Amino acid sequence: MNQTNAAIGKYRWTICSLVFFATTVNYLDRNVISYLRPFLAEAFHWTPEQEVIDYSNIELAFKIAYALGMFVAGGIIDKLGTKIGYAIATGLWSLAAIGHALATGTGGFLIARVFLGITEAGNFPAAIKATAEWFPQKERALATGIFNSGSNIGAIIVPLTVPYIASHFGWQWAFILTGIVGFVWLGLWFLLYEVPQKQRRLSQAELEYITADQVIENDETDQKPAKVSWFKLLSFRQTWAFAIGKLLTDPVWWFYLFWLPDFLMKQYKLSATDIIWPCALVYMIGSVGSIGGGWLPLKLINNNWPAYKARKVSMLLYAIAVLPVLFSQYLGAINIWLAILVIGLAVSAHQAWSANIFTTVSDMFPKHTTASVTGIGGMFGALGGILLTMLIQKNMFVYYTKIGKIETGYFIMFCICGFSYLSAWLIMHLLVPRMKKVEL
């Protein structure tokens, strides 16, 4: 098309901003507990070993619930549609976040984390479906990178606010206030969101731009698309490529999200308030990767690269960019900020990777199945996190805590983090060399 971007209009970026806001809220709610750990240990009188065990169990409960939620979230959102499905998920996880304030011990937190995990599973299937509905293929990685940067913004806001809130008003208010933000988003969502074909604020020029490179599918017409079962979706190599990619790389993100504060406090003897800016800087760097990760394939596609090649080359570069995290502790022995920089680079590379692996779903599958396939991948990612916690983190961290060498446990974890992405890229490439579109 010869129309300029200004003439086309930019309402699709308003939708991207809404999804970014929702993802930010999602990560505010799930990440709060990472920075309340020392406050909870004091309130519930945890010993050092009991702290590792109870915190691991709370983390594990969230991951198991998240995996179970992913089992059904994608299908429910495909059935209800993006507007209603996303609204229900956000409303429920905001209630679950507030419910943490009622917990009086480990058992209460386990229950709250289960409800939070199940309901938060709706975010990414809904977000990817909204992106597939509102963006042409060449812009999806950029749009995904922008909304996915909400996970970094949420992770930045939490260390800058939660320790202060907990210190001055009590740890319960950290959960209550973050939960309330979700209801603010709900009002904006109902006010501004509708699918492009029904959105009166959308110009005809922008609608044509959005759908120009898309095959008109049943879900863009009045005809209801046929339901596609998980068993059918699991028969495709494309589904397994996405699922295994998530299985191997999502646990790394979980590790940074839930254990980075503990690593900094134990490795460098920092307090809960001392880690505020180091943690915030890690996720600030990560935000750059999230948006830049979507920009690179867009640039390559605009230079006439095939979409699959642009995606594959970009993801390989991001997988390589993770490798310096292997040296984080060595560099940290020189200066803590060197460790922060290489961990930030790894987080940035993960977010760039994440923007692209999510986009492979809409590259390879019809739009009426994107939430379901995203749910499958999300479930596998959560299963990877569960296995990592059960087989490595929980037992390994307890063991090295007992013998007073927790830094060795963290070194092993950084080695796992460093090589996960190259392993995932190779498997994905072998399964789907050209990411051919699935025909249903």
TrEMBL record:
InterPro entries: MFS, MFS_dom, MFS_Na/Anion_cotransporter, MFS_trans_sf, Sugar_P_transporter. Its main location: membrane. Keywords: Membrane, Transmembrane, Transmembrane helix. It is a multi-pass membrane protein. The chain crosses the membrane at residues 60-77, 84-103, 140-165, 171-193, 240-260, 280-301, 313-330, 370-391, 411-432. It is found in: Membrane. Residues 15-436 form the Major facilitator superfamily (MFS) profile domain. PANTHER family: HEXURONATE TRANSPORTER, SOLUTE CARRIER FAMILY 17. This is MFS transporter. The lineage of its organism: Bacteria, Pseudomonadati, Bacteroidota, Flavobacteriia, Flavobacteriales.
